[in-house]
User: Fold this.
Amino acid sequence: MRSAVIIFPGSNCDRDMDVALKKFGFKNQMIWHNDMEIPKSDLIVLPGGFSYGDYLRCGSIAGKSKIIKSVLEFANSGGLVLGICNGFQILTETGLLPGVLLQNKYQKFICKNVHVKINDKENKYFKNIKKEVLELHIAHNEGNYFCSDDELKSLINNNQIAITYCNENGKEADRYNPNGALSNIAGIFNKNKNILGMMPHPERVIDKSLSSDDGNFFFENLIENLK
Amino acid sequence: MNEVNEHIAINHGLKKEEFSKICDLLKRTPNLTELGIFSAMWNEHCSYKSSRLHLKKLNTKGKKVIQGPGENAGVIDIEDDDAIVFKIESHNHPSFIEPYQGAATGVGGIMRDVFTMGARPIANLNSIHFGSPQHPKTKNLLRGVVKGIGGYGNCMGIPTVGGQTSFDDSYNGNILVNAMTLGLVNKNKIFYSKAAGVNKPVIYVGSKTGRDGIHGASMASAIFDDKIEEKKPTVQVGDPFTEKLLLEACLELMAGKSIISIQDMGAAGLTSSSIEMASKGNLGIELNLNKVPCREEKMTPYEIMLSESQERMLIVLENGKETEAKKIFDKWNLDFAVIGKTTKSKKIELFFDNNKVAEIPINILAENAPIYDRKWKKTKLPQKIKFNKDDFKKLKTTEVLKKILSLPNICSKEWIWQQYDHTVMGDTIQKPGSDSGVVRVHGTNKAVATSVDSSAVYCYAHPLTGGKQVVCESWRNLISCGSRPIAITNCLNFGNPEKEKNMGEFVECVEGINEASKFLDYPVVSGNVSFYNETKDKGIKPTPAIGGVGLIKDYKKMITMDLKKENNLILVVGKTEGHLDQSIFAINILNEKKGPPPEVNLFNEKNNGETVLKLMEEGLINSAHDVSLGGIITALSKMAIKGKKGFKLNKLKVLINKFDYYFGEDQGRYIIEIEGKNLSKVEKILKDNSVYYDDIGLVTKNEIIIDKEPILHIDDLIKSNMSWLKDYMDK
Assistant:
């Protein structure tokens, strides 16, 4: 399986994603934001970080960068696009995903482990995944997902809410929601479910020595589903 | 151009005698630009004029030392051609004036020092000290500093893996913000600041130069008065995004062979970077200031030379490599300008609008900078306090314990470090809130442990002992996680060196640091001095911060402090005499602030530490933690809180009072958790090495059982420990 990680100036989880993808068997390539074309890939990843310094608004400048046209084409033709953290913010800025990511409710950067529940398995990302509740890691200042009532309705009706914050048993409650996100949303799909944006970083939890190794479930399953 | 006179020189922070020395050396009166350059180079911050004599005595050599003090940062060998570049630096004055930018640019500056040497930063730490929580400024300063540190480090994508926060009245008017960075480099690809060769192009890269930070270094060399708010414009503004680009661009350029020397523009900007490179290479340097990329219009040579705009570097390139190098900086959208060349003249010569605007022999600025052998006063060891043990009878251990766990200086600092990205780069295997932060050496089985410590209370009571103690504590923190300590960096935060008492504190702390560093073979490889931490005649307590780095050869053998398993045994390694003077217990529970700090026995320190390492290498230890503030019971409680387990203490077998035993702060001690079946093996190793130990109890599921006192649940301790800072900041 081939993957491509886009590097924007200011991306800083690009290497971590590269390490993770390779660990689980992807042939990964790093693509510079000023390139126009993306080599043939089964998966494109927009990594975390502070693209273009996140000046103006998180992800907004990256959403207008040269490479994005190719990402849009790839996504619109059904290709898998995964946006993590800043990548999720970029996806909402390009309009590939609805809604916005506001500043965290308590106005602080938050770096910690969280649990998320997988809400929909009818997609390439989570089909057959062996665990329902994953312990992943978040590190962001703007992860407070928000959208209009209509958009939320549509997300619910189309099963586009991919993962939600919860406790280790899958129970949702305000106190397990780290950033104030609407309906505890940690990640969403587009309608076709080929595009996934999520705040948690699966690539930071892929090893027993790290704060969790539940990222393994995510990546192992993803590559299996792509085969 | 303005006529320069003594009055203008004094306004530049120079002393009358220093100005006449300048005139003598130059054999004329300097012009304003030249005076600016002198003031930048001769201030305390850049010249180390009060500290140099004493710093020279420091133990800086060792088998693992690749580069000691004198470069942008120190470098140590961690085997297999890998080396760690590290340093700690202060950004105290700017952070008090403008906490967000002050702290942010402190972090940015120290990272630049590290990647200037060719290393990719892999871990950040910080040591931050604030005034009393009741002081009206404390909350906002803390909030701003934490946001600034996070804002910069998080954006750069470097994990902040450790740190230290304290509160003390003496920082009411002078907070301390010390930032430390570790970088990883191949030991054959280290870059230095020494220029070599004549007629080599001098390149400016990074951000444009603006009017920010002019005289920043001079400000850091002055005491504060009522008008500090007016100094806001001297605080630099940070742009971590540009620094991230600069990091990547520099590392890309460094992968080739075009760099002769490289130096970041830190304190005193273009002035100190160009002079330092030339001075080390015994060369001259010629700069055309019209070529310097400027952010603002009509900047004068004086402003260009003294600006402390951030995210800039100066590089001496091989001839003919300009185009190749420029391509890289173009790719990263950074300014790149050839602004001058190296010369034979051994002078710094500046041109602007086709006029020569400054000409100063380099040796006058560097080697001839003033050195002061300041007068200093020895601090006498205070008399030991005779505590009235009858007072203890009213106290309950559990109640005292809960109170201590919730004290500002003991409580959990999670509110702070949760705002720092501590997991980016995917190699953090021990996060903040532990004895040390630990990061893996990417792609290997090795890991690097690092911590930062200071003990201002002890240093204030007796600087010599305090200096020794803080080095030992650093050493213990590294050992507690199973690493072998290699070397340290120090950030020496002191008051006004022109006062004999403050100067004495400095001299004796340095002596203490040196003594411990020698005995433990734990050399000082880099550091920084921050004097004049004084406002309206009130100086800070002497606060040397020690950043330590150690190596774990196989990270799977790393030890953590969380209690692991019910019924495991708990041992205290090292002898407990029950030293209460200057302890958290004495100060906060008994309100007794006098007395000497705990004595440091370097032999025991080393022997106990080495023996604990032996036990770890044998796989006999399940968890470990060093005993420091708050004594045995505080240390054990922190292990319990981390592991969400409880503990049961045996009836004491010692002859001293239980409060002495539980809360005494004797040095050289560790708490270790072991399995019952390993007890005899552990005892044998301890006895063979003549290490004293006590078997004090065992791990329970969740109950805290001490004597016949009411049983506590671990959640009670967690609550005591976790709430204070959160409530203080958010409620």
User: Anything to note?
Assistant: The radius of gyration of chain A is 16 Å. Residues 215-226 of chain A form the longest helix (12 residues). Chain A is about 20% helix and 25% strand.
